[in-house]
Amino acid sequence: MTDNNSATLEGGCTCRAVRYLMTSKPLFVHCCHCRWCQRETGSAFAHNALIEADRVVLQCGVPEAVNTPSNSGKGQKIIRCPQCRIALWSNYAGAGDALRFVRVGTLDEPDRLPPDIHIFTSSRQPWILLPPDKPSVPGYYERNKYWPAESLARRQALLG
Q1: Cα–Cα distance between 50 and 71 in angstroms, integer?
Q2: Among the residues of the chain, which ranges form H helices?
């Protein structure tokens, strides 16, 4: 897990119409290299901080949910600023609205949340060099193997 010791992180969209505060450290931070994430982001990967929805507090603005397909076939909601259209976080069908996948790049200090794991590396762009000190897996991973005990307990409390 990231060594971010601060309990709060601020972020928002490019035009600053929507601002949010993460009130605790995330459960876990993914860097996903799947083709689906590459297409959605228009980049080489998606960098997401998984956190309980009630720990992401809006400071200003009203983002909108855009329903989109997902690789699982269950869909996702991408939460965007209605003005500049920046994606702030996603909610996937598995956890519903209870868990947010916050786009780390929308944080004011994104460097404070480096990935805890690189996933779907079998489809990563060949020019991306993975750090040797972080786990990387060719597909998805076993949560119980990689998540810290504290994060597993938080997830269990959230989803039951």
Answers
A1: 18
A2: 35-41, 143-146, 149-159
Q: Is the pTM of this model over 0.85?
A: yes
Q: Write the burial class of residue 125 (CB in 10 Å: 0-12 exposed, 13-18 middle, 19+ buried).
A: exposed
- C-alpha–C-alpha distance, residues 123 and 20, integer Å: 32
Burial of 146 per CB tally in 10 Å (0-12, 13-18, 19+): middle
Measured between alpha carbons, how far is 66 from 44 in angstroms, rounded to an integer? 22
Three-state SS for 145? Answer: helix
Terminal-to-terminal C-alpha distance of the chain: 22
Q: Sign of the CA dihedral 31, 32, 38, 41? A: negative
Domain 9-159: what homologous superfamily? glutathione-dependent formaldehyde- activating enzyme (gfa) (3.90.1590.10)
Taking the C-alpha atoms of residue 40 and residue 87, their distance in angstroms, rounded to an integer, is 10
User: Mind listing the pLDDT tens digit for each residue in 94-121?
Assistant: 778 999 999 999 999 999 999 999 999 9
Question: What distance in Å separates the CA atoms of residue 125 and residue 128, rounded to the nearest whole number?
Answer: 6
148 near 1, Cβ under 8 Å? yes
Is 55 strand, coil or helix? helix
Q: Which two tokens stand for residue 135?
A: 């786990």
